[in-house]
Amino acid sequence: MKQYTWHYGEGELTFSIDERRIAAELHMATTPVLDNPVQAVKNGLDHPIGSKPLRELVHPGETVAILANDPTRVANSHVFMPVLLDYLNEAGIPDSHMTIVFALGTHRRMTEEEMIDSVGAEVAGRVKMINSYAKDSDDFVELGTTSFGTPVRFHKACVEADHIICTGSVVHHFFAGYGGGRKALLPGCAEYETIRKNHSLMLNPAAEIGRLEGNPIYEDQVEGTEMCRPTFLLNVVLNEAAEFTGVFCGDYIEAHKEACRFVDSQNGVRITERTPIVIATCGGYPKDINIYQMQKTMDNAVKAVAPGGTVILMAECREGSGSAILDETVRTFDSIDAIEESVRADFQIGRHKAYAVTRLMKKADFYLISSLDDAYARQAFFTPVHSVEEAVALADKKHGGDAKITLMPYASYTVPLLR
Questions:
Q1: Fewer CB within 10 Å, N or C, the chain?
Q2: In sequence order, what E strands does 191-317 have?
């Protein structure tokens, strides 16, 4: 028996597995950690991709909206944000002319404490910070409609600023291809109906992980973003330990695509076979804060499991599902097919996540170790379990006691790809 200790919430869970059954343990590539992330950011601002240096794009007296991640997306904003503010100061932009806009999308408002924790106390004391909350309709300005029929409404703090700087991290995304880039603005700082319409395109099979070209979600987001084109991009790539491995600055499309290529080389893991059992964890908080975020891990893990297999998933879900509409959906519909039919008939944010979760259950069973109430977990079509050992014993009844197992210690990052 071999013992493993994996991240779970802000703590850890330890379990033991017969190592003779382990077919593979999937890890991201060992990418060199940046020795000096601060200097890398400075270099990126002065030597960007597909753009003039930022100091040549802004002018004294102008205003800047800096878009920042919310707590569900780790970017280490507290490291690069002071560098960015100081750089803008040197270019003639005082702190009083900057606003940090937290790009929440449809997520809940951040508290003052969360905002300070995100960017650091020093930055929080220098500039104005606001939430872009999608349902505060009066805060948004309409700019037009995309060719996909999406009404484009962005937060007034973005529209009214002379410059928008998108920041954040880049990872694979289960229907938008990749995070980062344009997503800071759309959906990050977009009004609810804009996000709802854009996300409804996920029903198109071309809306898939690792794909930008031909992906209707991405193309619609770019088309909308062009109506309020960001001046600059500062995106980072992190490893499993949330250490900096890449900094990508410049044009919000070109620099982002370069970051996506880097993410493929770091996060994409080639596998030779799909196994009957996969054991996966999101990698702890905040990736396992709720079902809403956990689903991304499910999408990655299911790529490593054999058809009809079992995924054993460790995800604390301290905030439950993360969506009242997701809760309502799983309580209203008693089958996976009924949920899909409801989403196709009336696409709603939250309900789409219920669909994203349950559509995977047509490919594999999901045994869930979490803090969710067992009754709710069953209602959401999971099989609740309370230890990895219990889950493996249950899976063995289905697949046999010698069934091979794939381990995914950071399944929110690692994307299995068949050779």
A1: C
A2: 232-238, 244-250, 268-271, 275-281, 305-314
| Tokens (6 digits) for 212 | 């930008």
CA distance 385 to 59: 58
Are 263 and 211 spatial neighbours (Cβ–Cβ below 8 Å)? no
* Cross-strand bridge partners of residue 364: 309
Tokens, residue 230: 């960001």
Looking at this protein, which amino acid is placed at residue 104?
Answer: L
Please list the helix, strand and coil fractions of the chain in percent, rounded to the nearest 5, in that order: 35, 25, 35
Mean pLDDT by 10-residue block, N- to C-terminus, for the chain (419 residues)? 96 96 93 97 98 98 96 92 98 98 94 96 97 97 98 98 98 94 98 97 93 97 98 95 96 98 93 96 92 92 96 97 91 94 91 92 97 96 97 98 96 80
| Contact in structure between 134 and 98 (CB atoms under 8 Å) | no
Q: Is the peptide bond before 384 cis (omega within 30 degrees of 0)?
A: no
